[in-house]
TrEMBL record:
Name of the featured protein: Amino acid/amide ABC transporter ATP-binding protein 1, HAAT family (TC 3.A.1.4.-)
Keywords: ATP-binding, Nucleotide-binding, Transport
GO cellular component terms listed in the entry, alphabetical order: plasma membrane
Signal peptide range: none
MF-aspect GO terms: ATP binding; ATP hydrolysis activity; L-isoleucine transmembrane transporter activity; L-phenylalanine transmembrane transporter activity; L-valine transmembrane transporter activity
GO biological process: D-alanine transmembrane transport; L-alanine transport; L-isoleucine import across plasma membrane; L-valine import across plasma membrane
Domain ABC transporter: from-to ranges: 4-252
Length: 258
């Protein structure tokens, strides 16, 4: 079943067309990849889906509801969450505190419940702590729980960022270059984690990534962009052999990791 649909999506910045008439759908429960050479328009599409940028032309539907005219907080509230190319964490808080603060977005107790530590507050606090613990387990960060985020190796900081995004219980998780800066071992581990997030957490994933092994290894469907336009779409085996895709990457020195 379709979760997200982009229809003739176009974004211009002054005279530059960053995204031009892009159409694709993301099916519920799938892992989809958005790839393309540098400057192809991938992050711009994430910014359009999440409402950070206003759409110039075209439409975006989430669960068949138009979202291209909605504010970022409304879109987030509907169940779309993202991570960023540059890691955004509370660097001086512990791993656990980072996840727990994100979990608090789900709390609906009032200031009186909290101040008087009423039953509703105590029950929700217990549930949020359990959920934070579950997320740390899922992202294999339990052993780092009490470490300050800043002290974590780079690959683990990226995993912590994903745990924080999952704390918002998204239906659609957008990952912007989650394996950037990771070594091959860390990348392999991340691939397994992304599959687990889909299988155990039940959320749909759209991922931008330059690591081709990751994209080809986990995606059901891949959308290739070049100069803002959709160049190709299909399963990994089809994309890997597509002459147009290979040619687009040749200018950049070939398909990365292929
Ligand atoms: N806010 C902006 N103002 C002006 N131009 C922008 C803006 N955001 C993106 N662009 C331009 O739009 C084009 C697409 O950029 P985008 O960041 O979406 O590419 P990308 O495919 O994500 O690239 P990369 O793989 O390098 O991250 C680029 O030419 C970029 O300079």
């Amino acid at each position: 079943m379709e979760l997200l649909r982009l229809e003739n999506l176009t974004k211009t910045f002054g005279g530059l067309t960053a995204v031009k008439d892009v159409n694709f759908t993301v099916n519920e429960g799938s892992i989809s990849g958005l790839i393309g050479p540098n400057g192809a328009g991938k992050t711009t599409i994430f910014n359009l889906i999440t409402g950070i940028y206003k759409v110039t032309r075209g439409a975006i539907y989430f669960q068949n509801v138009p979202i291209h005219d909605k504010e970022p907080h409304v879109i987030a509230g509907m169940g779309i969450t993202r991570t960023f190319q540059n890691i955004r964490l509370f660097k001086n808080l512990t791993v656990y505190q980072n996840v727990l603060t994100a979990c608090h977005h789900n709390a609906d107790y009032g200031i009186f419940d909290a101040a008087l530590r009423l039953k509703k507050f105590r029950r929700q606090e217990r549930e949020l702590k359990e959920f934070a613990g579950r997320l740390l387990e899922l992202m294999e960060l339990s052993g780092w729980k009490d470490k300050v985020a800043n002290s974590l190796p780079y690959g683990l900081q990226r995993r912590l960022e994903i745990a924080r995004a999952l704390a918002l219980k998204p239906k659609l998780l957008l990952l912007d270059e989650p394996a950037a800066g990771m070594n091959p071992d860390e990348t392999r581990q991340l691939m397994n984690l992304i599959r687990r997030i889909r299988d155990e957490f039940g959320c749909t994933i759209l991922v931008i990534e330059h690591h081709m092994d990751l994209i080809m290894g986990i995606c059901d469907n891949i959308i290739v962009l070049n100069f803002g336009k959709k160049l190709a779409e299909g399963p990994p085996e089809k994309i890997q052999q597509d002459p147009l895709v290979i040619e687009a990457y040749l200018g950049e020195g070939g398909m990365p990791g292929a």
